[in-house]
Amino acid sequence: MLIGKVVGSVVATRKDEKLEGRKLLVVQVHNHKNEPTEQYVVAADSVQAGPGDMVLYATGSSARQTSSTENRPVDAVVMAIVDSWDLGGANVYEKWNPR
Amino acid sequence: MYLARVTGRVVATHKYEGLGGVPLQWIQPLDEHGKAMGGQLVACAVISAGPGDLVHFVDGREAALACPETFVPVDAAIIGFVEQAVANGVRIGREGR
Prior knowledge:
The complex is a heterodimer. Chain A is mostly beta strands. Chain A has strands at residues 2-10, 24-30, 36-45, 54-59, 76-81, 84-87, 90-94. In chain B, the strands form two sheets. A five-stranded mixed beta barrel of chain B has the order 1-3-4-6-5. A two-stranded antiparallel sheet of chain B has the order 7-8. The longest helix of chain B is centred in the middle third of the chain and has 4 residues, at 62-65. Classes of the chains: A mainly beta, B mainly beta. The A-B interface holds A 1-3, 31-32, 46-47, 56, 58-66, 69, 77, 79-89, 92 and B 7-16, 19, 24, 26, 39-43, 51-52, 60-61, 63-64, 71-76. Strand 5 of chain A pairs antiparallel with strand 2 (14-15) of chain B, so a sheet runs across the interface.
């Protein structure tokens, strides 16, 4: 899984019928040091994430292993909202204390 | 499956159902020399590993099969603790050894 920040959502009225009702989020990938990268992904949501949330997303066929994406044409899914992380004991990200 | 070093931990209280109680950790994949290979990623830790530990992990859909609940959106899982690995006669040991 990789970590990213939800920076927007996708509105698409014409899409595969299996995607009807799925919330699609635009996620900007952050690296382990919490530096934003130039990589963006569109991911389906499974945890009611919203703009500004730091999230974890899974890609590939794993993304279909949720009740809302099973058997649907989805290859990225947001599967957790990140509260904090640390590297080697040093705090890098804290949800309630954004840096 | 790949070798990796555990570098940190991730706290997420709001996770997809079925992932409760499964720790998440940052890992750095390693090459045959024990050097960093590519970027770090987050994996489910189904064995208890901590920062600095040498582990092996599986990626892709198979990673979910290592979790207690197997129908979960997981694409990387730490599945083993490595005491020692040897590649081309060179030992890839635990940190500091």
